[in-house]
Each structure stands twice: as C-alpha cells, then as structure tokens.
Amino acid sequence: MNEFISQLLSGLATGGIYASMALALVMIYRSTHHVNFAQGEMAMFSTFLASMLIQAGWPYWATFFATVGIAFAMGAAIEMTLIRRLRNAPILSIVVVFVALLVILHSLAGWLFGYTIRSFPSPFAESTWYGSTLLSPHQIGAIGITLLMLALVYVFFRFSPLGLAMRATAENPVSSRLVGVRVNRMLALGWGLAGAIGAVAGMMIAPVVFLDVHMMSGVLIYAFAAAVLGGIASAWGAVVGGFIVGVLENLLGTYVVGSELKLSVALVLIIGVLVVRPSGLFGKAVVVRV
C-alpha cells in the first residue's frame, strides 16, 4: 500500500511538470488556434540559457527570473518575425513551420551547448521541512509552482484589462480590432507568456531528468496528452489533465505496461480522447450553424 501511495504522489509531482507545459500549449492555442510543436524545444533552449547563467555565478532565483524574461522575449520575437507572416497561410504550412522550428532549436542547442548530459540545480534544498519520505522537496516545490502559475494566469485573464483584451483577441480578432484592441500586440504577448511558462517547466524538470537537448521530447507528448484530455482551450483543464496524465503514466507504467511502454499511455490517451470527446473534459464543443 505504501508503494502505491508513493507511486501516486510521484505521479502527481511529475504531472505538475506536464501541467506547466500543457498550460504553455494552451496559451498559444488560445491566441492562434494552433498547436506549437516546438514548445518543448523552446523550454529546453531556455533551460540551457539558465544553466549558463548559473555557471557564470548568478544566484538561482536571479537566474530563474532572468530566464523567464528571456524566454518571454524569445516567444514574442518568434511570433513577430515568423508566425505573424503565416497568419493567412494554410494549416499544413503552419504545421511544417512548427516542426521546422522544433528541428532548428534542437540542432542549434546541440551546436551551442553540446550533447553532454548535465546536472541542473534545484531551488528546493533536500533539508527543507516540507520534504517527506514519499515526496522530495523538489517534487513538492514543483507542484506548488505549477499551481501558483495557474492562479496567476487565471487572475491575469479574469481581472486584468490586458488579459481581457487577449481573451477578446482569441475569440474574435476582427471585432477586437474594431473596438481598438491591438491584436498583433496581444498575439505576441500570448506567445511570450507561453515561452515564459515553458521555461519554468524546463527549469523544474531539468533537476529530475538532467539537462540535455533531448530532455523535453517525451515531456511534450505527455503535455499534449494533458492539454487534449483537459481541453486544449482550457487553462484549468490543462493543469488538471497534467496531473491525471502524470498519475496514469506512473501507475500504468509501474503495474501494467512497464517502463518501456510508458510513452504509449500518452499516445493511447490522445487517440481515445479525440475519438470519444474531442473537446476534452473541460473544453466546450463549438457548434457552427450553416
């Protein structure tokens, strides 16, 4: 029984990482109605930048906030220089660009930082009071940061004028322009926020899986499964889906399919949700009258 509880709690901790990445995917989807397949590589690249700052002698939390700012700027720059020019392009062209961006960032990171696996520090010391035999301080801290990000995103979109303008842009960009909303700026802001959230996810998972250019490949698949399960347009759904996927992956990988087939759990989940309930658990089905 203790082993089951340990696996359950460990799944929740892993699910917190998936939830963060799923939240980044939702941010871009709500802005552009496209899935950014390069989100994981953007997070990986940002984490390598954080590692460079730490090696240069920066304190962890100064590095953390600087990396979040750099990732925000990188996400906004990608939208302004690349994605904005493809706004009226066919969907297939946009998918190809996202895949190309994934490959470019992956190769660039290998060229700049190398393919050697590195350690990455955790901001949560092992001797802190909130650690336990079932969950490490880093696992508990990662869950807390995920929930804090969700709360901040909810407050931002629900109560701030800028968040309301972003929601309006996502729902109806034409009408938003007519009432004076700067749609291009809102889209860049959405990409920037997604980049910042992804960077946080990268810095939270790097102490667990170590830092290398491949570290986010599997995480992105689990995060996509979480976003699809919770609802690709729902921030709350993405976080809940992340925790569910983390628990399912851990329990099924331990007791049913084995560690070699753990990734198949996410793939089967994606297919099942798209077949049974494409809008996800918390998404809304869109009905178009013709």
TrEMBL record:
The chain crosses the membrane at residues 6-28, 60-78, 90-117, 137-157, 186-209, 221-248, 255-276. It comes from the Bacteria. Keywords: Amino-acid transport, Cell membrane, Membrane, Transmembrane, Transmembrane helix, Transport. It is found in: Cell membrane. It is a multi-pass membrane protein. CDD domains: TM_PBP1_LivH_like. InterPro entries: ABC_transp_permease, BCAA_transport_permease. Pfam families: BPD_transp_2. Belongs to the binding-protein-dependent transport system permease family. LivHM subfamily. This is Branched-chain amino acid transport system permease protein.
